[in-house]
Amino acid sequence: MPRYELDGQVAIVTGAGRGIGRATALRLAREGTSVTVADIDEANTNQVAEEIESAGGTAHAYTVDVTDRADTERMVAETVDRFGRLDILVNNAGIAVIASLMDTDEAAWDSLMNVNAKGVLLCSQAAARQMIDQGSGGRIINNASGAGKIAPGRSTPLGAYAASKHAVVALTKQFGLELSSHGILVNCVCPGIVDTSMWDLIDREVAQLEGVPVGSVKARAAAGIPVGRIQQPEDVANLIAYLASSDASYITAQALNVSGGMLPY
Fold this sequence. Notes:
47% of the residues lie in helices and 15% in strands. By secondary structure, it is of the alpha/beta class. The chain has helices at residues 19-30, 42-54, 69-83, 106-134, 159-179, 197-210, 216-223, 233-244; strands at residues 10-14, 34-39, 59-63, 88-91, 138-143, 184-191, 254-258.
């Protein structure tokens, strides 16, 4: 059942083809929001949009490359053409590369920074310009990951990924301050160990590096979660829906943990 008053609002969710993005698109649609389901994978994008519409919601599928400025601007323009406005942007698109910093090559570094950091910059710029033109404020919510706050550690070789997500936290804070006078609130969420295909990838590759069974790396990480269970994408979507709502009207430039108690600050 809907919890927040989001009827009539319009959202874009990037990386919405699976995982946290999919859960967020579905949740916002249930709240009465019209959603542009944006992802680089056209098949997944169409599938999630159809899922929303079959449940009685309103969705538009858009295949996007968040690293391309013209494409992000078209995404916003097409959303406005379809729904008349834009109120909420969720920057969720992201990739991971499993490698120690000493083994991270330039191609991997550039890919991570382009998608995870530059993508947030470009999408936020395009969305904020539209929100400023509308003159009624808005919300930008970024997925920064717990890796945006802490180093993953020697046993989880995600140093370059963490650097890109630290950049997302910085972008969130600065955008939040710069856009506050326009009534645009900018925050990010910092999840922990989420049961998604990205963590399946981490599990497989780290398991191979360590010579341990597939599944054991994720199980080891999940065992340290204070609330006693692995996180589901819907746990993150719940916080995003709250940040999109009027209940969060006095929160901006913040990095909010949703990690089951894992993150220390």
